[in-house]
Write a structure and sequence with these properties.
Layout lengths: L1 E5 L6 H12 L3 E3 H10 L3 H12 L5 H19 L2 E4 L5 H14 L5 E6 L2 H15 L6 H15 L1 H8 L3 E5 L4 H12 L3
Parallel strand pairs: 1-3, 1-4, 2-3, 4-5
Helix pairs in contact: 1-9, 2-3, 6-7
The protein binds adenosine monophosphate (AMP).
């Protein structure tokens, strides 16, 4: 299974990716987690990344590809695929990832889009901020991340639809129900 999970911040792609990974054995790769781990190691690269992630701005593509491509290739080799959570995040990233995927023989087979209205997202993100204390879950940064999502990431929906890869799922409901639908639609149940 080689899938891209697509959702607004707080849309549940982390939760659904974990459940899907558990059910299939295919690696779940969260770009945000990879970046946060690098920031936590306090390397020079980590300090450069922190400026972007703390503000809710996108990390430049060069850094993203440098960090993620080796991890994705290794996951595809060892677990038979990947569940990408947070990458690609822009149409240019998707186009470059498609080229690489084709060259390496590991192209994405589906893009699962979890559709959730903005009002629900803000509430979920504020709850997560209270529970996890993430540095980028303050009200101002949340608003900014939603703006970045609408401007930069939402165009991926049309992009993947045009490629015939989009699997759209209404995601303002219980996580188990969403997961069941994802697996049915991907033929993984
Ligand atoms: P996330 O955990 O997916 O919400 O990502 C947290 C932050 O990491 C984002 O607000 C961005 O600053 C950065 N980030 C994650 N994935 C990407 C990506 N594919 N391209 C650029 N920046 C990213």
């Amino acid at each position: 299974m080689k899938v891209v999970m697509l959702a607004p911040p707080g849309g549940g792609k982390g939760t659904q990716s974990v459940l899907l990974s558990r059910a299939t054995g295919v690696a779940h790769l969260s770009s945000g987690d990879q970046l946060r781990a690098e920031v936590a190691r306090d390397t020079e690269l980590g300090r450069r990344l922190a400026g972007y992630t703390a503000a809710g701005d996108l990390v430049p593509d060069e850094l993203i590809f440098e960090i993620l491509v080796p991890v994705i290739v290794a996951a595809a080799r060892t677990t038979g695929g990947y569940i990408l959570d947070g990458f690609p995040r822009t149409v240019p990233q998707a186009v470059r990832a498609e080229q690489l995927g084709a060259e390496l023989g590991i192209p994405a087979e589906a893009a699962v889009y979890l559709a959730v209205p903005d009002e629900v997202l803000v509430e979920r993100l504020l709850t997560r901020a209270r529970q996890e204390g993430r540095a980028d879950d303050t009200p101002a940064v949340i608003r900014h991340r939603l703006e970045v999502y609408h401007a930069e990431t939402e165009p991926l929906i049309g992009h993947y639809r045009g490629r015939g890869l989009l699997v759209e799922i209404g995601a303002d409901r219980a996580p188990d129900e969403i997961q069941a639908e994802i697996r049915t639609r991907l033929g993984a149940s």
